[in-house]
């Protein structure tokens, strides 16, 4: 068996990155750790997120992971530098796409949707100082989006109402590009696009992160063990099993083994 790639998130949002990783590296196996019992990370202080991410990382490394993708902006901002300083394996983190957004805007205003923890992080402030280039960057935390995705509610009147409430003020303030700066948010992308209209560009960095991760992986050989992926949750296992096909429609169910962790 090839050593797996480890992917972690506060919950199910990182599955949006898992989808991109599988598209790009279909012969790799993945251990996905969704820390739904501790979700949301976005409302927690940075030191608490960091301690939790170290615990999950220790677990993934014990399972033999060769590379860890921190598929969570909040966890990346709180912990990635400390993780790199402590462990020898490569870590790939998330970063809200502020730089491409400022290059794309025509109105000179971009909106960044992210968690409170991400928006408060020093790393995020550095990103704005380094890349805003005179562009007006407005931000908005959307904890309700995380809750919708954790419950598998990606459409319908309740989800639409929440999406309207969070996104329309940014459009009214002139934003023509919205950065989806949390890995849960891409699951709401079709609904967000419908609400803000076709002229607003939505950006997320899942595919770019998968490409970055691929640069660390020697993709020789095919993983033949079945099922090849382990999807672990600290939350409700039967709920995960039920909504997984909605979140990861291209991953064949036969390729996945689900389990619960009390970590
Ligand atoms: N998916 C996480 C991120 O990218 C955060 C969700 C949460 O608040 O736990 O920031």
From TrEMBL:
The active site is at 72 (proton donor/acceptor), 182 (proton donor/acceptor). Pathway: Cell wall biogenesis; peptidoglycan biosynthesis. InterPro entries: Asp/Glu/hydantoin_racemase, Asp/Glu_race, Asp/Glu_racemase_AS_1, Asp/Glu_racemase_AS_2, Glu_race. GO terms for molecular function: glutamate racemase activity. The keyword Isomerase applies. SUPFAM superfamilies: Aspartate/glutamate racemase. GO terms for biological process: cell wall organization; peptidoglycan biosynthetic process; regulation of cell shape. It holds the Pfam family Asp_Glu_race. Its EC number is 5.1.1.3. Substrate binds at residues 9-10, 41-42, 73-74, 183-184. It is an enzyme of class 5 (isomerase). It catalyses: L-glutamate = D-glutamate. Keywords: Cell shape, Cell wall biogenesis/degradation, Isomerase, Peptidoglycan synthesis. It comes from the Bacteria. Provides the (R)-glutamate required for cell wall biosynthesis. Belongs to the aspartate/glutamate racemases family. PANTHER family: GLUTAMATE RACEMASE. This is Glutamate racemase. It comes from Oceaniferula spumae. The gene is murI.
């Amino acid at each position: 068996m090839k050593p797996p790639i480890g992917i972690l998130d506060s919950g199910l949002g990182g599955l949006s990155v898992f989808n991109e990783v599988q598209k790009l590296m279909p012969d790799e196996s993945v251990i996905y750790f969704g820390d739904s019992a501790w979700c949301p990370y976005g409302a927690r202080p940075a030191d608490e997120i960091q301690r939790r991410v170290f615990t999950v990382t220790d677990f993934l490394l014990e399972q033999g992971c060769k590379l860890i993708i921190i598929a969570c902006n909040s966890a990346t901002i709180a912990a990635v530098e400390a993780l790199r300083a402590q462990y020898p394996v490569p870590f790939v983190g998330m970063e809200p796409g502020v730089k491409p957004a400022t290059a794309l805007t025509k109105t000179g205003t971009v909106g960044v949707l992210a968690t409170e923890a991400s928006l408060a992080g020093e790393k995020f402030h550095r990103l704005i100082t380094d890349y805003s280039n005179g562009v007006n960057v407005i931000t908005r935390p959307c904890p309700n989006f995380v809750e919708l995705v954790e419950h598998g509610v990606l459409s319908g009147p309740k989800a639409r109402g929440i999406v309207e409430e969070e996104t329309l003020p940014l459009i009214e303030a002139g934003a023509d590009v919205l950065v989806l700066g949390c890995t849960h948010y891409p699951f709401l992308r079709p609904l967000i696009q419908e609400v803000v209209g076709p002229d607003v560009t939505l950006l997320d960095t899942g595919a770019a992160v998968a490409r970055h991760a691929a640069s660390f992986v020697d993709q020789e050989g095919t993983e033949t063990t079945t099922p090849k992926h382990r999807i672990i949750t600290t939350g409700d296992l039967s709920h995960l099993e039920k909504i997984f096909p909605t979140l990861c429609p291209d991953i064949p169910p036969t390729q996945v083994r689900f389990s619960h962790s009390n970590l």
